[in-house]
Amino acid sequence: MADRSVAAPGSSSSIPDLLDRARAGDEAARERLFTACRSYVQLVARAQVESWLRAKVDASDLVQQTLMDAHRGFDGFRGGTEAEWLAWLRRIMQHNAVDFVRHYRCTDKRQAGREVPIGRTNPDDSFVRGIEPSDPGESPSEAFLRHERELEVAEAITHLSPDHQEVILLRNLQRLPFDEIAERMNRSRPAVQMLWMRALQKLEEKLKRGTASD
């Protein structure tokens, strides 16, 4: 993966640069490193939790635990690229998510009939590979989203409307068929397909402008 300049709000430092500075004891760089990845971790956590439980549950505990564990284990991270850093965060999340889902099963038996096997969403997959449209040629954003821009894409998605976030999450990250998405969102299949196209177009616009503002 190319070492793009991706950083926390108000910063132009790249992830490899922030990693080097954080290892050297720069606490400000360390905080900026984790802030830059928060939207990414939040989105992947939500995809993991909703994929396994088939329910809208709060993934904030999973995000908090993942970032806390990453902070504590930072000295054990041996990589130096953005790709290695994100893959390391996903592995930590995978470990925590297994415990999270197990705990959820024990505390809310009502979800028992709605669970799916753990592992439906592979945490080692590239995030951007997951965000690409499922059917080649189906979206005008396909080529644009092939670029390795995980952090930028994740940040932009978090600034979309709730409906646009959800349809992208279900279609592109979880790879669900439109019929199932329509059922979950309580809409018709044509309405969901149109919503999905508009969501990708809105996402593309935000990425082209290089800003999360409307």
Question: Can you give a write-up of this model?
Answer:
The protein is mainly α. The protein has 9 helices and no strands. It has helices at residues 15-23, 27-53, 60-72, 82-107, 127-131, 150-157, 162-173, 178-185, 189-209. The longest helix is centred in the N-terminal third of the chain and has 27 residues, at 27-53. The radius of gyration is 17 Å and the shape is flat. The protein starts with 14 loop residues before the first helix and ends in a 5-residue tail after the last helix. Residues 1-12, 111-124 and 132-147 have low confidence and may be disordered.
Number of helices: 9
Q: Which percent range fits the helix content? A: 55-70%
Largest β-sheet summary: none
Task: Please state the CA-atom Rg, rounded to the nearest Å.
Answer: 17 Å
| DSSP strand count | 0
Average predicted local confidence, pLDDT: 76
Poorly predicted spans: 1-12, 111-124, 132-147
The helix/strand class is: mainly alpha
Sum up the overall morphology in one term: flat
What is the end-to-end distance?
29 Å
This entry's quaternary arrangement is single chain
- In N-to-C order, the SSE pattern is HHHHHHHHH
Strand content: under 5%
